[in-house]
Amino acid sequence: MSSPEVHHEEGNHPGPAQYVRIAVILFVITIIEVAIYYIEPLQGVLVPMLIVFSLLKFVLVVLWFMHLRFDTRVFTWVFVSGILLTLSVFAVVLLTFFLQGGAAPSPPGLGG
Amino acid sequence: MSAAHAAHGAPEPHTSTGVDNVKMAMWTFLGSECLFFGSLISTYLLYHDTTGSGPTSADVYDIPFTSISSFVLLMSSLTMVLALSSIQQGNPRAMRIWLTATAFLGLTFVGGQIFEFTTFVEEGLTLQTSPFSSAFFVLTGFHGAHVTIGVLMLLGVVAMSSFGRLGPDSARPVEMVGLYWHFVDVVWIVIFTVVYLIP
User: Fold this and answer.
1) B46 touches A at CB < 8 Å
2) Whole-number percent of chain A with pLDDT over 70
3) DSSP chain A
4) pLDDT of residue A16
5) Is pLDDT above 90 for A50?
6) pLDDT value, residue B1
7) Quick check: B130 and A111 CB within 8 A?
8) Which of B42, B70, B71, B105 to mutate to test the interface with A (most CBs of A within 10 A)?
9) Residue of A5, A8, A80, B3 with fewest CB within 10 Å of its CB?
10) For testing the chain A interface, which of B71, B77, B80, B130 should be mutated: the one with the most A CBs within 10 Å?
């Protein structure tokens, strides 16, 4: 019985120059993140801006450095499933928090 | 056999599902790691303001210092991907240099974290000070442990390559370690924003 062959959907991986370009973009985004942290007039929109920048960096690393952009979609779905489960856990934790009247439960043996 | 593998004289990867088994296992592991760190980040957010009489995050965090650490870890992702690119182009020597650079940057990050922890303890923030401090040290400590394990794996691959033990498909272990390393980097991207930057 012959074993199934590996299904390849790999496109051409980027070259070193493209990797450096991605790294420069990541570096610039990090500088912007830190800069807006200190800019007083932007404090009102700080959280959404930071979340967008963080998401952008996350996606760039996963798609380009981890090659999800060039690999089979199955790996993308496996990883995205993990992220969706994580967000579900996060939502349940927050829900529990609000159901308890907005006060975090105090763990035993810890002050605060 | 795929053209890429045939060109490098490497054996076709094992599969039972049509996709590479080892790579599938690695992505499944990384998916489960999302849950692990997601739980720790949720706990941190829940206890962020529960500081009791201990220092708050605003009292102890040193954003410029942590920004430099973040930059170091981001650049280690670049050196990691350059290592993979080198071995895919049949240049093991360049691969070893880039992997060693990645390990060095990883150790620099861990060194920075140890310095940060030491400073925090001197300022009165220990693991037992408050729910906030416990959540902070457990989250960032586990991330640091992951970076340390990554450094050991990188040095292991460098040693195996030096002794000619990587086998015919030498790009494969580099790719797997690379996936782990980049994942540790993306987790830090989230931690840096959620824990350090968001007030």
Assistant:
1) yes
2) 79
3) -PPPPPP----PPP-HHHHHHHHHHHHHHHHHHHHHHH-GGGGGGHHHHHHHHHHHHHHHIIIIIS-TTTS-HHHHHHHHHHHHHHHHHHHHHHHHHHHTTS-PPPPTT---
4) 92
5) yes
6) 40
7) yes
8) B42
9) B3
10) B77
Rounded (10°) CA dihedral A112, B143, A26, A17:
180
The residues spanned by each domain of chain B are 18-50+58-197
Mean residue pLDDT across chain B: 91
Which DSSP category does B47 fall into? Answer: H
Residues for chain B: how many in total?
Answer: 199
Top CATH class of B18-50+58-197 equals: mainly alpha
Q: Which of A34, A54, A78 sits opposite B63 (nearest CB)?
A: A34
How much is the pLDDT for B18?
Answer: 72
Nearest CB neighbour to A23, from listed B2, B78, B190: B78
Across A8-12, B27-31, B35-39, B187-191, least confident range: A8-12
Which tokens belong to B140? 């960032």
* pLDDT(B8) > 60: no
User: Counting one residue from A and one from B, how many pairs have CB atoms under 8 Å apart?
Assistant: 173
Instruction: Give the C-alpha separation, B1 to B10, whole Å.
Output: 9
Q: Does B167 touch chain A (CB under 8 A)?
A: no
What whole-number distance in Å separates Cα of residue A74 and Cα of residue B19?
A: 8
Query: Six-digit token pair at B30?
Result: 């990384």
The Cα–Cα gap between B74 and B105 comes to 9
pLDDT per residue as tens digits for the range A14-25: 889 999 999 999
Which residue of A lies nearest to B86 if distances are taken between CA atoms?
A: A16
CA distance B103 to chain A (A): 17
Q: Is any Cβ of chain B less than 8 angstroms from the Cβ of A72?
A: yes
